[in-house]
Amino acid sequence: MADLIETDYLVIGAGAAGMAITDALLSHRDASVTLVERRHAPGGHWLDAYPFVRLHQPSAFYGVDSVPLGRDAVDRSGLNAGFYEAAGADELRAYFAHVMQEHFLPTRRVRFFPCSAYLGGEDDRHRFVSRLSGARQEVRVRRKLVDTAYLEGGIPATSKPPFEVDEGVRCIAPGDVARLARHSGPFVVIGAGKTAMDTCVWLLTNGVPASAIRWVKPREGWWLNRRFHQPHTGLPEFFAGIGLQFQAMAHARSVDDLFLRLEADGFFLRVDPAVKPTMLHGAILSEAELALLRQITDVVRLGRVQRIGRGSMVLDDGEVATPADAVHIHCAARGLAQRPLRPIFEPGRLTVQPIMWGFASHQFALLGMAESMIESDDEKNRLCRPIHYWDQCADYLGAYMALLANERARANHPALAAWARESRLNPLGRLGEYRDHPLVVETRGRLRELGQAAVENVSRLSAMRS
Questions:
Q1: 297-336, pLDDT tens digit by residue?
Q2: Please, is 320 exposed, middle or buried when counting C-beta atoms within 10 Å of its C-beta (0-12, 13-18, 19+)?
Q3: For the chain, what is the HEC assignment?
Q4: What is the pLDDT of residues 85-121, one digit of tens each?
Q5: CB burial class (10 A; 0-12, 13-18, 19+) of residue 335?
Q6: CATH 2.30.30.30: does it fit domain 5-153+336-422?
Q7: What pLDDT, on a 0 to 100 scale, did the predictor assign at position 2?
Q8: Engineering a disulfide at 196: which of 133, 314, 331, 394 sits with its beta carbon 3.0 to 4.6 angstroms away?
Q9: Do domains 5-153+336-422 and 155-220+287-335 have the same CATH topology?
Q10: Is the pLDDT of residue 337 over 70?
Q11: CATH of 155-220+287-335, one of 3.50.50.60, 3.40.50.1970, 3.30.300.30, 3.90.980.10
Q12: Quick one: which of 363, 357, 194 has its CA closest to 279?
């Protein structure tokens, strides 16, 4: 056993959550931090991601608060033309490595242990082990363990297909499709989420005809329109999107009616207008991507895949023939864990969970700021109440109401409110620069007029759901 490490905070995971929280602790508290990461570098799942993955939100809203990501440039070509840049996997990996090497480690208050697995602990004593040498290390934590893995999910790149695959059937993860040496047969994309959409879009933009793609979709989803989620000069329309949501919430007669109203406004998108969505994961999609995806007409809707054989595919609700020379791309994984909620702040522990609708990096940094600025765990938990990750359409109601309640509570905490106004990760932090823009003025009036009715009607719709 090596010498005992003493640290104020032991952070399990150096992904987006661990890095954003560490950044807040370093910037606003005289604390030492030890990060333990099972991968070889900081960046979390971005180290495992398929090579053509990109942020679905603008780079301006992502990363750690103290280090900007990207150049705040508007793309002039491609599917993101006209919108602010969204970093790809290579840029994100380089960004997190830069933050660690140039901003965290030089403070001499951070220790980083890559290729290491957390083994557990109790009270103030914890242990981890190097996956390379097998050496075990004991840590005494003076303040808190920060658990970023409580709700960690699986991704196709690191998960086996969640179905049987017969011998001789070609079934690969999304990242492997970019490395195919040669293929002349059809592609079968399995999954209904963002990974499946990214894969379909990548195939189409690289010359694969839509007729050569079969899309197996167990569910249809609602997606957020990228047009309403832009920083800087896009903030007036971002704010207008909030007004559209309040308008729909105030007048909707049901959850379905709420989504249809927002679809009519262009705020929510769905790939197939003829199929009722049952899924809402909060990912952002452009209308250009939507137009591409609608070119795929060979869509199988028979539930989840149970087994792929040579010549046939067995699903929950039936069986379909599948070409023997097809490459099956499994974009299906269990996603984020759905575990019981627990207080985020406890004696000796900070358990990362969502506290509002959307924009994860802002939430992560906010948890670090609450830990830095507030002594009482009870007060921190009052201002940062956890919610479940959204999955079904009706989850949107609870997540959005939690956002409003938490924002209202934090607005009365001067230090947190002041930080939020200045944070680059807060999507609306710079809205004041556009206070006289006609869209902003109009939306403020809409919110004043409809705010109370929206809250009351959402409470009614939520009660109808339960």
A1: 999 999 999 999 999 999 999 999 999 899 999 998 766 6
A2: middle
A3: CCCCEEEEEEEECCCHHHHHHHHHHHHHCCCCEEEECCCCCCCHHHHCCCCCCECCCCHHHCCCCCCCCCCCCECCCCCCCCCECCCEHHHHHHHHHHHHHHHHHHHCCEEEECCEEEEEEECCEEEEEECCCCCEEEEEEEEEEEECCCCCCECHHHCCCCCEECCCCEEECHHHHCCCCCCCCCEEEECCCHHHHHHHHHHHHCCCCHHHEEEECCCCEEEEEHHHCCCHHHHHHHHHHHHHHHHHHHHCCCHHHHHHHHHHCCCEECCCCCCCCCEEEEEEECHHHHHHHCCCCCEECCCCEEEEECCEEEECCEEEECCCCCEEEECCCCECCCCCCCCCEECCEEECCCCCCCCHHHHHHHHHHHHHHCCCHHHHHHHCCCCCCCCCCCHHHHHHHHHHHHHHHHHCCHHHHHHHHHCCCCCCCCHHHHCCCHHHHHHHHHHHHHHHHHHHHHHHHHHHHC
A4: 999 999 999 999 999 999 999 999 999 999 999 999 9
A5: middle
A6: no
A7: 64
A8: 331
A9: yes
A10: no
A11: 3.50.50.60
A12: 194
Residue 90 CB partners (closer than 8 Å, separation 6+): 51
> Is 157 a residue whose pLDDT tops 80?
no
Domain boundaries, the chain: 5-153+336-422, 155-220+287-335, 224-269+435-466
When pLDDT is cut at 50, 70 and 90, the band that residue 465 belongs to is: low
Closest to 343 (Cα-Cα) out of 64, 122, 150:
150
pTM, entire model: 0.95
Amino acid at 168: G
Name the more confident of 341 and 466: 341
Q: Residues near 400 by Cβ (< 8 Å), separated by ≥ 6? A: 245, 249, 357, 458
- Percentage of the chain with pLDDT > 90? 85
136 in Cβ contact with 1 (< 8 Å): yes
Distance CA 466, CA 349 (A): 32
Q: What is the mean pLDDT of the chain?
A: 94
CA–CA separation, 410 and 380 (whole Å): 10
Position 79 pLDDT exceeds 70: yes
